[in-house]
Fold these 2 entries.
Entry 1:
Amino acid sequence: MRIVSLLPSATEILFALGAGDRVVGVTHECDYPPAAHALPKVTANVLPQGRRSGDIDRHVRASLHGGSSIYLLDHALLETLAPDLIITQELCDVCAVSYAEVSLAVKRMTADARVVSLDPHSLDDVLDTFTTVGALVGAAGRASQLCEEFRNAVEQLRQRAATLPRTRALFLEWIDPPINAGHWNPELLEAAGVEVLLGAPGRDAHRITWEEIAAADPDVILAAPCGMNVEATQHELAGLALRPEWRNLRAVRQDSICVVDGSQFFARPGPRLVEGARHFQAWLAARLPASR
């Protein structure tokens, strides 16, 4: 089987299932595991590089409103790779090449390729994707094991959470405009012992107002915007210094802000989701004794 993965999370799942040697093409964002770096990239990002989150948001909205994509799909390379299976998604046109564009590309190909869409909204849905991909690549047994490992890791989060004070947290999936935690993330953080303020469990993350944030006044803030590493996120947060709603938040005054690489650990519904929650929980555990 020849597989093209159009999702970083699918790439991680395929390698975790032992099917990495069958992956012949990935996206420009597929950077884990390291072996994915060497594979042909069938997509490219047309977003301007080095822009602030507000500029990126305006560019994305204008592109989608105008009916254009923020990603380029290399149709010629896809044809050359001749995949039997293409794994994509319908969840978000901002997260990956749209399902419609992939379907159109496949129709133009001379060889037949099966297109499978992964669209998880909850932690159970994430586990279902492990099972789905495992069945596709003949690794049902390993998929079952991967699901069990994931469940055990979430249970360990819950057990650790029972020893910690309950904490009210704001999870920012984007900075400007502020966007709350959606899909699987509120559930994941609840397992880590956090009350997620303004979250949207099982639903699309959406824009929230600074008035809502000020009224919620979280104990801590988890900043893990999709598509940004730690350095870029810290740069974005520094730009909020002039906003009084931000400066006056308890978490900001007490420097209780945890910055995590959102792309690596929260935006990708794959095996490493628990790592992000575990990191945040460890950060909380280190701070809470001093704040009592």
Entry 2:
Amino acid sequence: MTGSKPVEIVGGGLAGLALGIGLRRAGVPVTVFEAGDYPRHRVCGEFIAGLEEGTLERLGIQNVFEGSLRHEGVQWFSGDQAAGKMRLPSPAVGISRFTLDARLAGLFLAHGGKLVTRHRVTGKPEGEGRVNAAGRRRAAGSPWVGLKAHVRNLSLTSDLELHLGDGAYIGLAPVEEGWINVCGLFRRRAGLGGDTPRGLAETLRGSGLKGLAARVEVAEFRPSSVSAVAGFAFDRRVGRGRGVVLGDTCAMVPPFTGNGMAMAFTGAALALGPLVDWAAHGVAWETVSARIHLALQREFRLRLGSAAWLHPLLLNRHGQGCLRGLTRAGLLPMRPLYHLLH
């Protein structure tokens, strides 16, 4: 598109790269700044629920999911007890961030985008022509720690498993090459294990998940996949007053929903049209920013609020007991809850 103004994207995660690919397909010059490099492991559930195929087609990224897994069932556990089983209304996609981010980066470059890695942008990440997709916003005093590892030779009771522990929940999701992503959210406390295979098992055991800890302890660990993250918070509202923000910078949903990755792609698709209007058609940046914020708010407000309501119930024994009882009695409205969260 001749004469288009350039767009800078701070952050080369899912939202930043997907948006960059969509803009390049529209002929907009794009530079993506990424503090890390590719490929790399990230703390992430690595299953995508509720993502519409049309979103991927609009961005032009549907081919990066080639060979990914499709998950249809979820088994819930409360402590070491099976608590319920659910068939997903639509299959969830299983793919590691190690593979997915690298594929997106390659596609962005193939479309003529400029990718600057190992570069941390200093100063204000927002402003005219700049999109902030730099990831989780720092939260001082956050009570949460995320731990993740890929393991093999671990049998599952369903396509996906979700384990509810004492101040913790952990998802098990198969990804490519036979690996299973074990990713958990834990309330910070004394004695929490570190980002090592033994530390992960200790953390599971300390969260009342002795059976899962024993299964993980004897599994084969993928070298370099064990990782940790801290200092983050979850949002009930879409970020405002900070220009154009996408991905976890915009809003971070509790991970049990499997919706964070889907929200990153959906947000990129919602921002694509307005940014093309700014770059190619002269629409004012303030107008574009307001349009994007309103679209994100309409799309994500209900699921963020629903997740914030359910999230505390999954982390304490009383809430888990209530959920377990409703499930066994057949009174838990699983499908309506799923649609609220997605």
